[in-house]
Amino acid sequence: MTWISIIALTLFCIIKVLMTCLPTGVVDWLLDKYRLHLRLNELETEIIYNEMKVDGENKNAIIKIFNEAIVREKYSLYPGSEETYLSSKNAEYSLVINTKKGNKDIKLFLNSYQDHVDIVKRYKNKIVAYSTYPLHLDVLNKK
Questions:
Q1: What is the pLDDT of residues 53-87, one digit of tens each?
Q2: How many domains does the chain have?
Q3: Buried-most residue among 4, 49, 65, 134 (CB within 10 A)?
Q4: 45 and 4 both lie in a single domain
Q5: Is 80 in the same domain as 135?
Q6: Which residue, 123, 128, 101, 110, is CA-closest to 38?
Q7: Strand, helix or coil for residue 100
Q8: Phi and psi dihedrals of 25, rounded to 5?
């Protein structure tokens, strides 16, 4: 009986230490799995502006600015309310970003306004809408 208690206590202590002292790579993986604002990479991302594909330095600059953006507010979506976030009537500019996260295809719709940017993330059958601070994309004006 004593040996069983000692072994159980030892296993419990090892599991507790592993759970509280996870390596940085594991912590980053866990946080990235549940992150609302995903990070884009250049290889798996396609950016469309005015029905034209954005490439080269402009694409890299847009991805860099997008990755540095901070989430301001998450919107609650009700059935039928996603159309208000997908429409770009009064937007200064609109972008469509197609990317992959693992084996999931994700489509992002960015509508920029004077004081915020609405981002709608569509993947599988789910739609998530949130807002960030304004992204100043001067690269879109360059020809």
A1: 988 888 888 899 889 888 888 887 777 666 766 77
A2: 2
A3: 49
A4: no
A5: yes
A6: 101
A7: strand
A8: -60, -40
Average pLDDT of the chain, as a whole number: 83
46/116 same-domain check: yes
Cα separation of 70 and 133, whole Å?
Answer: 7
Burial class (CB within 10 angstroms; exposed 0-12, middle 13-18, buried 19+) of 78: exposed
Of 11 and 20, the structure prediction assigns the larger pLDDT to: 11
Q: Give me the amino acid identity at 136.
A: H
Q: Are residues 56 and 112 in the same domain?
A: yes
Q: Going along the chain, which residue ranges are E strands?
A: 46-49, 52-54, 71-75, 93-101, 104-112, 117-123, 126-132
Q: Is the pLDDT of residue 124 over 90?
A: no
